[in-house]
Write the structure tokens for this entry.
Amino acid sequence: MTDMGSGAGRPPLSALLSQVLVAFIIEFDNEFERQMPHRTSGHGRTQGRGAVPWLVSMAMWSTCLRFVGDGGITVRELAKRVRTGTNLAGMQRWGYITVAPDPAGTRAKPPRSDWVVRATTSGCRAQHVWQPLTGVIEERWAARFGTNTMAALKEPLQVVSEQLDPALPDCLPILGHGLWSTPDRGRPADHKRPGPGHRRPAPEPEQHKDPPQPRADLPVLLSRVLLAFAVEFEHESPVSLAISANVLRVLDEHGVRVRDLPGLSGVSKEGISMAMGILATRGLAVCGPAPDGGRWQVAALTPRGRSVQNKCRERLTETERRWQARFGGEAVTALREALERLVGDPGARLAAGLEPPPGGWRASVRRPGTLPQYPMVLHRGGFPDGS
């Protein structure tokens, strides 16, 4: 199958950004899992007494707990500072936070936006584990790949990031309905979305500074640049980048076994199921018994799905071409070359940091043959492959 790339056999810029970011997040998550008492559906709970929270991914730190200080934070202020959605209901259910009216408040029924988010005992422990992890993983990468390699990656990322919409969040959003990254895809049809070159004004100064996580952090830079690319791609796309890059990309008219899709895409079975449901609803793919009478269900593109697949491939190439003109050919070329050096062929250099801790949940599941070409960040804990 032909890759959607920028040139013969070259992966799209968004795929390279995604695979480096996903590799960083998985290594980050593995270290959190090793240090943090937790529970999961397949492995029960870690040893020790007392309640322990459900295991979650870096997204739940980036969109929630890193902003919750000792005195808590209102729901309104949290949304303002995160600049994207978070899964407050999940974080509360999983044991990391409480969300309740301020006991010092004077109103009998304050609006939910004025309720206060506070970290539980488990949430405070998770904050203590999470806070230094970005720096820890960056130090590992500098030792593994070389400081010059990491500098060659971060410099063009910084150049591009500084030219982006300042209202973009510092992390990827939890994917919305339709698995869109673009925040307003669920708004009414008459809502006019800004074009790909639109720049909103900088947000008003906030009363409180963010907890230490400078924008030069590698996952912040990767996330902002990748999200900007996704927003531009999705501006007129019939499907989200998460669906196009991961599932639509690996399908063809002849049919691919559904059981093979997680390994081909790097996305979990649950993420595949959601994406296939959307593709089927829109008439882009069908799923059913194999034409040769085999026992496995197969997924195949419809003629319209094949057309959309081709258009998505062209859109990826065109978006990178526009970026060359907008952000400078030198910066975008340097970024692509730095990413290609890290990803290698087919990502073997990144694989060194993906080994899960002994007894970790990833150690008990089959490792896919690739990393996702766009993170599938879902409400199911925020893992980058939709797990």
